[in-house]
Amino acid sequence: MVAGSTLLSLAAAALAVALLVSTSEARHPSPTPPPLPVLPIPSASQLKWQRREVIMFFHFGMNTFTDSEWGTGTEDPSLFRPAALNATQWMDAARAAGASLVILVAKHHDGFCLWPSAYTAHSVSASPWRAGRGDVVAEFVAAARARGLDAGLYLSPWDRHDERYGQEVAYNEYYEAQLHELLTGYGSVSEIWFDGAKGKNATNMTYHFQEWFQTVKQLQRSINIFSDDGPDVRWVGDEKGYAGATCWSAVNRSAITIGEAGIEKYLNEGDPRGRDWVPPECDVSIRTGWFWHANETAKPLAQLLEIYYNSVGRNCVLLLNAPPNSTGLVEDADVAWLREFGRAVDTIFGTDLAAGSAARASSERGGGFEACNVLDGREDTYWAPKAEDGRRNGYWIELRRPAAGRPFEFNVVRIQEHVALGQRVERHAVYVDGAPVANGTTVGHKRLHRLPRPVAGRKVRVWFTARRGPPLLSAVGLHHDPFAAAGAM
């Protein structure tokens, strides 16, 4: 009997423990894990770059003083004499436009170097500026850091001055040496620009891009490399600042040859079956040319905003060029336009008219992935539906105004995917009180719809098609753009 009593006691104790654990789990349920990524996904540096949204380019050099876009390489260094060069003024212009990264053309196709390179005499050290002891790259980087901006550099592969150009080994060694100078002598560089641009009658030259790329990563591990082929950031395929209406961050790098004609559409739209995460950068100048010319003026605000909607609003980063003049300053009129552009973007997106609304969705994955996450203003939280949901009825998320509150009144819709886990949305459509107002294909980091006219309603629903995996939405916002003209976008 004693043994039986002991067994009963042990069984009772075990039951009590089981009940206690069950009760504890009921009170403290295990968190729902996040969904698996849909490959490819961005690196940490690519994700940081994408969230910048607006960055700045500064084309400045020998062309500034010869009224050219592409120099010949035969220019006399004595022509380079910017009497009032002030890189801090450039940074203030960039900050006014809302930029967080600035990129300098350290050497353009004419081969003139804006730093005192040890490997050529064709540089600022041969000019009268700063009595031959100047260094534009050093002043640029120092001014950027003093204003809280990250710095980037462009080193043109095509060099119309250096006599080694055309000699494959000798020139590639020269170019690598200059990469070492720029990436070891000026601190952290956030982006480096490569392209394949060269004239139709240029000397035949094979660039060792892969060697260059690996050298760059060896010298600066967190840097982003721009080229047609990435590996981190790709060209969008035009110089208008417009991405494709469909724009995937993924491509197959093996399908791209840097500088090759005929790849523009592929670069512009990306590839839903791409194996490599290489998001696009939209480069465009605020003037007609990339370098300063006295007879040119900046694009008006309406055009700059149109570019913003077609770049940032289509899953890209906007690289906006502001060329300093021959005195070494960005024109006052250009600075004024940049400041007006930055204020306009702040005016439009500084207020989210969806704030305070209620959010519900076709389904929710579980705790931590609720529909209301699209309204919290955070990049790291998101709504995730159940996978089965889309296979049955489609995915949707809805914002609703309280019955006692005023209806939504807006003319811009903002949708953002949680791209840290991949890009998924293939198609989407926006409805206000059941009536369609906008539709499109990809979303990515950010998709903006500027409506022809303001709409009002109490219920905004966005439908998604996402066969690559359930859509993960970090934000849905509603805004008013007072600068929108009737019929725009």
TrEMBL record:
InterPro entries: Galactose-bd-like_sf, GH, Glyco_hydro_29, Glyco_hydro_29_N. One of its GO terms (cellular component) is apoplast. Its EC number is 3.2.1.51. Residues 78-343 form the Glycoside hydrolase family 29 N-terminal domain. Residues 1-26 form the signal peptide. Keywords: Apoplast, Glycoprotein, Glycosidase, Hydrolase, Secreted, Signal. The keyword Lyase does not apply. It is found in: Secreted, Extracellular space, Apoplast. GO terms for molecular function: alpha-L-fucosidase activity. It comes from the Eukaryota. It is an enzyme of class 3 (hydrolase). Pfam families: Alpha_L_fucos (PF01120). PANTHER family: ALPHA-L-FUCOSIDASE, ALPHA-L-FUCOSIDASE-RELATED. Belongs to the glycosyl hydrolase 29 family. This is alpha-L-fucosidase. It comes from Urochloa decumbens. The lineage of its organism: Eukaryota, Viridiplantae, Streptophyta, Embryophyta, Tracheophyta.
